[in-house]
Amino acid sequence: MSNSQFHNYTFPAELDPSVSAFFSNHNVNEWTFEKYKEFCLHDNSRMQINAILACYQDNLKKIINNKDVPINIKGKAGVLRGNTKESATEKSKLQNIYNVNIKTNHGTVYGDVFNNNDSSREDKRQKVDHVNDKSSTWNINNQEDVWEAVRQYLNKSIAHDFCLEKYHIIKCGYSIKCDPSIPDELWAYFKDDDYTISTPFQTCSQYTTSVLTVMKKNELKAIEEVVKSLEITEEIPSTSQNFIKEFFYVCLYIYRRPNLYNRLSINETSFNHSFIWLIMEFVVDSMPDMTLKFSPGEYLLKCSNEEYKADACISADENELSILETSGKILLDDNSKYGSDHIKIHYGALSIFNAVYKKYYWATEATASKLHIPFLHARHDMIHLWSLGFCSSKLYFSKKVFKCKVPRDMTESKDILALGNLAWCYKCLLENAVKVIKTMKEEHEEYALQKILSSGAESRTSLSTLLKLDIQKPVKGSGYNLLLPDEYNEEQSSVRYTRSK
């Protein structure tokens, strides 16, 4: 977006009719709170200032979260919202200050990024790469500007020798709270307030309801009869129908004996053997067209530079694809181990990700950027599904895709359904990873031949140069309990379910 386009931008009403007409009738430079207040009071002179402020902030939030709004407009809206939030809480009339260090061609510049609304600081203001001008608008014109700013904040927020910030990994996704080390103006670019999960159960809702209803009675023979009753129809994708039916069969097998939690609480092995491995094996078996290999038990990760033993691994051909980390028996209640294993499995996933990039280093960045490595972390009574992906050079994201509670028995319909949705999400992520790696391999081999056979081959950057390779497996120590991600409670986590295709 050019400067003239930026200054003349008005919010298109069709993107979100719930956003006030003020933002459609005024260009972005006029989106100040004072002008918005005048707009509201013109229509309703008795409107309270607090109500106007709340509406103003809510409208800006909608604009920030709208995927069709240009990224530099989101930056401006984020700054405006941050400024009014600061005024509303009356914390201080001084500007926000964020510490940064900026690496340049001439060395390192240390300084502060100021909220430039305070005129008394104007002559003392440090000029840094992602601060634009006196209007305090972030100098963000594209996604790369966002990632550069995030890198600087991650470097400044390293609080532990093995925290994810040191690996340059951003935590985000389902139920994850805003990272306090990253300002709201930046966090707004990749947070998702409208989180959506694709579910196969909506395609066979009547059948699913019938099975869950019978499950509440916990009578195995009756449940088996209902599970068998699914009639395959052409209107519904066979993949979804087969997945749902086989999932309920797996549930019948897992809960064929009573008191599941008693068995899972014996030790970590029993937790894996009697529950988690069965789910992982079911997911692998649901993809017969793909050459996936499931390796349960203590698996030595080949791509790791240090000895790394996973609790299970899924491979595709010669490539390790996904791993499991189980933090002891069910209901262990050990946050120190939970935190240590949370970091450990991220190290393993990062090792897998980097190995693919290093192996197929001549693949295009456009294809490689689509690679997401899924992994599972089982702790306490929950299974957490994560996905590790690439943002930009030496910067990754770890997205919480979904989580579910281990159902105590088949009468817990909500947890049974959540388990099925987690398994489906895991399946979709594995399928996508296999397809992306296949394309990366083809592109790598094709380009390698081009370099030999043609002097006019396009110039391409090796993917290995984009990776953060100075990573270490966590060692025993203290403070790991503080490294668990801060999450919203279930009732605070907003998730929307859509029918799988």
Q: How do the SSEs run, as a string of H and E? A: HHHHHEEHEHEHHHHHEEEHHEEEHE
Low-pLDDT segments: 89-137
Number of helices: 15
Strand count, sense and barrel status of the largest sheet are: 7 strands, mixed
As a whole number of angstroms, the C-alpha radius of gyration is 26 Å
**Average pLDDT taken over every residue:** 86
User: How are strands sequenced across the largest beta sheet?
Assistant: 3-10-9-8-7-6-5
Count the strands? 11
> Helix amount, in percent?
40-55%
Beta strand %: 15-25%
Distance between the termini: 34 Å
Alpha-beta classification: alpha/beta
Shape summary: globular
Structure description:
By secondary structure, this protein is α/β, with parallel strands linked by helices. Helices cover 41% and strands 17% of the residues. It has helices spanning 3-7, 22-25, 33-43, 49-65, 71-89, 143-156, 184-187, 205-215, 220-228, 238-254, 260-264, 268-285, 335-359, 365-368, 413-453, and strands at residues 97-104, 107-114, 169-173, 195-199, 292-300, 309-316, 319-326, 373-379, 382-392, 395-405, 495-499. The strands form three sheets. The chain has a seven-stranded mixed beta sheet, sandwiched between helices. Strand 6 and strand 7 form a beta hairpin. The longest helix is centred in the C-terminal third of the chain and has 41 residues, at 413-453. It is globular.
